[in-house]
Every structure is written in C-alpha cells, then in structure tokens.
Amino acid sequence: MNNLAGAYDRPGPGPGGPLYEQALAGCRRVLGDDHPDTLASVNNLAGTFRAVGDLARAVLLFEQALAGCRRCSATITRTP
User: Fold this and answer.
1) What are residue 56's phi and psi, to 5 degrees?
2) pTM value > 0.85
3) Which of 8, 10, 23, 34 is the most exposed place for a label (fewest CB within 10 A)?
4) DSSP, residue by residue, 37-78
C-alpha cells in the first residue's frame, strides 16, 4: 500500500495521503512503532503533509520518525 501511495503522490491533495495513513496504521498494528518499515511510513506521510503545505503535521511526523530511528540505532550493538 505504501508503494501505491507513492505512485499517486504528487503536489497538492491527492489519493496518496490517505493511502500513506492506512499503510502507517497497518505497520504500527503489525510491526510496532519502531520497526524500520513503520518509520519509513511515518516519514512518507510526513513528506506528503509537507508537499501540501501542512508543515505543522509534517514536522511532528518527521520528529517522530527521527526519534524512532535514534531509538533503533541505540539498540544495535556494534562489534569492532
């Protein structure tokens, strides 16, 4: 669904936004908030809000995606 939303994505209101919202809801339900696919969906939805000029919602979602990425990277153990 996320890829279909991307195919519809274009400047201005269009069918991409609701599909990104559905994809995000499904990812959160099945994968959890910090799964990389969920975070990508958050980021995609934020980009859609940015494209239509809803900067307040875009920034909120971009911040959520960034925070999730930071939490995920903090759990990765690196070996020298």
Assistant:
1) -65, -45
2) no
3) 10
4) HHHHHHHHHHHHHHHTT-HHHHHHHHHHHHHHHHHHHHH---
Count how many Cα atoms sit within 13 Å of the Cα of residue 31 in the half-sphere of its side chain.
Answer: 16
Mind listing the pLDDT tens digit of every residue in the chain (80 residues)? 555 555 455 555 566 678 888 889 999 999 999 999 999 999 989 988 888 889 999 999 999 999 999 888 776 655 55
Joined tokens for residue 35: 């799964």
With a CB cutoff of 8 Å and minimum separation 6, the contacts of 31 are 37, 38
- Most distant CA pair in the chain: distance in Å? 48
* 8 Å CB contact between 15 and 8: yes
Q: Give the CA-trace dihedral at 51, 49, 6, 2, to 10 degrees.
A: 170
